[in-house]
Amino acid sequence: MNCSYLYKSTRLLNVSEQLNKLTQIISRYSAVGNIASIWEIGSRDGSDAAKLAHAYTEAQIHSFEPNPDTFKFVDAVAQNSKNQIISHNFAISDKDGSEIFHKIDTERTITPWVDGNPGASSFFVASTKYQIEKYIQIPIKVQSRRADTLIEELGNSIPQLLWVDVQGSEKMVFEGFGRFLKEVKFIYVELSLIEIYQNAPLANEIVTFLKSDFYWTSNITKSQTQIDSLFIAKNIGGFRDFLKDLLLRISLKTDHKWGIRDIRSPTRVVLDFSMRKVNSIVKLIISRNNLTALTAFVFKLVIGVRSKGNPQPVKFRYRQILNVIPPYNPLKRNQNSTPEIELMIPVTQKDSDVLDLSVTGAVTHVQNHIKKISLVCPDSIVNELRTRYPDYDVVSENSLISPTLEKLVHDYFKPDRQGWIKQQFLKKLFVLRCSNPVLVLDADTIILKPKIWINSMGTQILGISDEYHSPYAEHFSNFSGLPNPPWSFVTHHQLMQPRIIREFLNENDESIERYIKSALRNEHSSISEYHSYGTWMFYKHADSIIYSKWTNQSVSKVEGLNLELSEIKEKFPRACSVSFHDYLKQ
User: Strands 438-441 and 493-496: what pairing?
Assistant: First the structure.
């Protein structure tokens, strides 16, 4: 797919981060300046080729892209590269000649990518099992070449590094190298863990194909559906690479998927660790009544499962670990003394069909007294919402966003993302003008279980999420100077205290401008209001937070929009909340 980011609730790096990590690993085996030839197979729009050229300034880069719709972009990048990049409008495959290629119909494909994701074009027909995007393909004929044929024509110019992103055709590419494949030093390749294309080989088949000549040494990015893997030639690897290769292969064939998939949540990490140990210790105690073994287990849990880089004392880490293990409502013992809060929901026109459910879910399940409900929306729907919800405070976005902030967002971000960026600010700016803590709730999210968000001692729940997106962490780290926390706080709803936001984001223009300009300018999603708040609390107010199990279910509107709240709860009994995300369409 070769996009800077795949739209999944998983941890993935952008291309620059991938290259940095890749280069760090490669430099252990070879000086970067010794990489003289790179083949980028599946170039899409040439953006990766440009970054490769910047990272490997001494290398000649051959970029191959068969899709006629996007090759013009690859060729333009090559023309501007001063002959460092050479573009080729054909595929690298296992045969010479013409083949049927299924290019993406960018107008009809259902995808979160504004360009229709032409990079998902493939020699294979899309699978209906892949639910994240729905590809509409157009079969065309393209030219393909075997790599060994091309190498012989180029005078045995064998690439030291392969960058392969070919949507299921990986094995065809490697088979086409023939006897020359074993002379390649490094292979960086995107592999699929689930069926995205019909009959396309999955990761295990590719790993098995390469095992005779290459060690599988690392996964640069990991997700629930795909991985970007680095293989190094066995003749330059060592014993450590052999062990890593063995561990990754074993993991791929087990349920644990260590190093293959990102663990879905901190809860799962702790539970995987704890339950195995608890079972073994319980058996030991039953058989020997061994108190020493139990003490050793508790000590190991406290010391061994601490978060990397977490400056908090051991007793805090222990409490955090225990709080991450269930309960989703850890403050419920304080239900007789719960301070009042406000509820704020940012609303756009597209949210109108789910807003009733969102409000009902919050009113039903928030255990703190809700003093006031505020709906923040564009001017165009203010009157409509005031008529529909006469008891709520309907606030125009324009009353919160100053002309200075409007201009900053307009000047700094792409037009198609400016509205989304303003949404992130609206939540913070609203909270700043309040005196009470505010539960900020996305309009497409419905709370399904009762929860106390803050107690009379000022201890608040902080939800931990499995939706990790590295630009969010990078943005707030750039702004605050704080390291990235081990967990994500992108939970679609979060209690925010005005005094906390004032600590890191004052209402003055200078602070807000610095906050904006700390974001990755060209990144599709670059700022998270929830992750910013959670990171500050994690490092600055660890004694005032208690972690909550976050079990949010992302669903399509087809799955539940016409149901009553009770029916949604029955349909998703294990979820603490559900989010009706627009990109999940059927």
Answer: antiparallel
